[in-house]
Amino acid sequence: MLRIGIIGIGFMGMIHYCAIKKATGGEVVAICTRNRRKLDGDWTSIQGNFGPRGGIVDLSHLRKYDQIEAVIADAEVDMVDICLPVHLHKAVSIAALKAGKHVLVEKPISVNLDDANEMIRIGNATGRHLMVAHVLPFFSEFAYVKKAVESTDYGQFLGGHFKRITSKSKKMCDSADIERNGGPGIDLHIHDTHFVQLICGMPDAVFSQGQVAAGNLLESVTTQYIYKYKNLSISCSSGAMSQQGRPFSHGFEIYMEKATLLHEFSTLGGKAVTVMPLTLLTDEGEAHEVDLGEGGPIDAFTNEIQYAIDAINGEHEPSVLSAVGARDALSLCYKEAESVQTGQIAAVS
């Protein structure tokens, strides 16, 4: 049984705790937070943009720490699950790796490319798994797309368009906060760059237009991903652009020789709305809603963490959660920002 310690009990830490309870081969044995009420099991202050609100949780069976160093030093913890603000990812991940722990760290791996490369180097040097929790490929609609593209059951993959839009902030964001979390151009859009490079490989170049948030970080972006040696037409629109009545929306149109896949989900007026359930358009002119089975908002995170557990147990390589893939996704975000600021196509090395 893989013994897991969660560092950081905010919304994502709570979601990971709930997700791990549904996984097999791993269990939470320790948590770490500086918040005394959360250590005592009062999670009622936790609320995110999906899933359940926090409640009263029985933590009597867990070891509870208010110092990160203490949970990293715990010999009974095999993997740390880091759900901390982005600017803490590097230091805590490296400390855990050097202490002999496997690491699952929330996305993005970092806001700084040099830091991401150092994290990868330390992970390789210690022989421990460094995995980055890019959950999008584990949502059933995106998992279906990945499988369809890889299987070629519907013929050659021709291209697609992705979108991930949040509402504009009511208040002016502090530039220091944007630099710590990357702003929408990284913190939000990196879901898309990660998925694009996962199913298509790294593009040769990008051409982007959008709005700058601060420095070389973007508020919003629309990108054409350019592949010189593949017949692909891939684009994406992402960022904080919508009005408050639709705080979140994401989806895709995927084009293959024998099928088109459509999906869109939004939060409209405070309610979760599946605007377009995953739908398959056939070359015979038919439209079929794809049966994805039963599932709740936690299931994608359970699938993600199950994948990480199985990788540590030697069942497969963690390619979907690869730190290199996470670094490459971060690199694409910066190349898109370069293209926005120069107005030119930016080559991707």
What is the topology?
Elements: E1 2-7, H1 11-21, E2 26-32, H2 36-39, E3 63-65, H3 68-73, E4 79-82, H4 89-98, E5 102-106, H5 113-126, E6 130-133, H6 140-151, E7 157-167, H7 175-181, H8 184-188, H9 190-200, E8 205-214, E9 217-226, E10 233-242, E11 248-256, E12 259-268, E13 271-282, E14 287-289, H10 299-312, H11 323-342, E15 346-347
Helix pairs in contact: 1-10, 4-5, 5-11, 9-11
Descriptive labels:
349 residues, alpha/beta, Rossmann fold, Dihydrodipicolinate Reductase, domain 2, 2 domains, nine-stranded mixed sheet, six-stranded parallel sheet, 11 helices, 33% helix, globular
Model description:
The protein has 349 residues and is of the alpha/beta class. It has 2 domains: 2-133, Rossmann fold; 136-295 and 312-347, Dihydrodipicolinate Reductase, domain 2 (2-Layer Sandwich). The chain has 11 helices and 15 strands. Strands 14-13-12-11-7-10-9-8-15 form a 9-stranded mixed β-sheet. A 6-stranded parallel β-sheet has the order 3-2-1-4-5-6, sandwiched between helices. A hairpin with a 4-residue loop joins β13 (271-282) and β14. α5 runs antiparallel to α11. The longest helix has 20 residues, at 323-342. It is globular, with a radius of gyration of 20 Å.
